[in-house]
Design brief:
Low-confidence stretches: 155-159, 246-308
Number of domains: 2
Largest sheet: 2 strands, antiparallel
Shape: flat
Structural class: mainly alpha
Order of helices and strands: HEEHHHHHHHHHHHH
Length: about 300
């Protein structure tokens, strides 16, 4: 491709724009002074991106940098908006490859929707919650998948059955909503089990707290804060198309009066209880209690586990 030819691919175009922003003699940079774990100097954004991709870069450092980047994009205009897309390109390209699998249309259409969803969420993403970049990319994936779903609906003729069909999302069982919330890092397993046991099951808060080995007041606080985060994630669409695999936990709790991990096994597979094993959720799995029982999921207490 000639140096004067602008790429037709949305992601390639974003990369070209990012390259122009970060080239000499005046590359766009981020002041990393005061950010522990990064060189204490002004860093060109392409160098900063490489540093954040390294395994030793912590979630705290990434979120600190991304909070600054999103703030600049909202405040300082188009060049910083382009910069945020460029900083997220490794993750966007990875998701674009997954989205293109089995897609019969033009992959550039999906790439464009991926960027559109990313930019729409850029205006509203909460900078206090963790995984800022991840949540922006997730929003792009949801936007692209909606296009895929619309395309599939208009090009598919169902002939295998003349009976009723299971409705698509957003219809879903609350057990699966909680399981996806854990996989997305919105809830930790103890919070999810508290909600499942007391809201979906028949346990009182005191009974659920005793099972966790904690004070009832503390259990009530955990449940209340977890429900607030869950409500916000549902409203923002953060739980759509979330695969049931566990992200690296952002906090590790030791259950009071019990061994490390506590009832993590109730949701994600533990050593103290025989549970069903779930791999990645490729699509909505919904149905009555009998269906959930076959895969080892049910309230009170969710017993989904990551793939092994």
């Amino acid at each position: 491709m000639g140096s004067n030819t602008w790429p037709s691919s949305p992601l390639d175009a974003a990369q070209r724009a990012f390259d122009l922003l970060t080239c000499l003699p005046a590359p766009l940079g981020h002041d990393a002074r005061g950010v522990e774990g990064l060189p204490q100097r002004m860093l060109p954004l392409d160098e900063l991106r490489d540093l954040l991709l390294k395994p030793e870069a912590t979630t705290v450092v990434r979120d600190r940098v991304w909070s600054d980047l999103v703030t600049r994009a909202r405040r300082d205009g188009p060049e910083w908006v382009v910069a945020t897309v460029g900083m997220a390109l490794p993750g966007l390209r990875k998701q674009a490859g997954l989205l293109a699998s089995g897609w019969k249309g033009d992959s550039e259409d999906l790439d464009a929707e991926l960027i559109v969803g990313f930019l729409e969420r850029l205006r509203t993403v909460d900078l206090v919650e963790r995984r800022i970049c991840g949540r922006l990319i997730d929003a792009g994936v949801r936007c692209a998948r909606k296009v895929r779903d619309r395309y599939a609906d208009t090009h598919m003729v169902h002939v295998d059955s003349d009976g009723p069909r299971t409705p698509k999302l957003p219809w879903d069982h609350p057990d699966w909503v909680l399981a996806r919330a854990v996989a997305a890092g919105v809830l930790d397993p103890d919070e999810a089990n508290l909600i499942a046991a007391t809201r979906l099951g028949h346990e009182t808060l005191a009974q659920a707290a005793e099972a966790l080995g904690m004070d009832t007041t503390l259990a009530g606080k955990w449940r209340r804060l977890g429900e607030l985060r869950l409500r916000g994630a549902i409203a923002a669409g953060d739980l759509e198309y979330v695969p049931l695999r566990v992200r690296r936990p952002w906090r590790r709790r030791r259950v009071l009066g019990g061994p490390a991990g506590g009832r993590v096994g109730f949701l994600l597979g533990g050593q103290d209880r025989k549970v069903g094993r779930l791999g990645t959720q490729q699509g909505p799995l919904v149905g009555k209690t009998s269906v959930r029982g076959r895969v080892g999921v049910g309230a009170p207490g969710i017993v989904a586990a990551p793939a092994v």
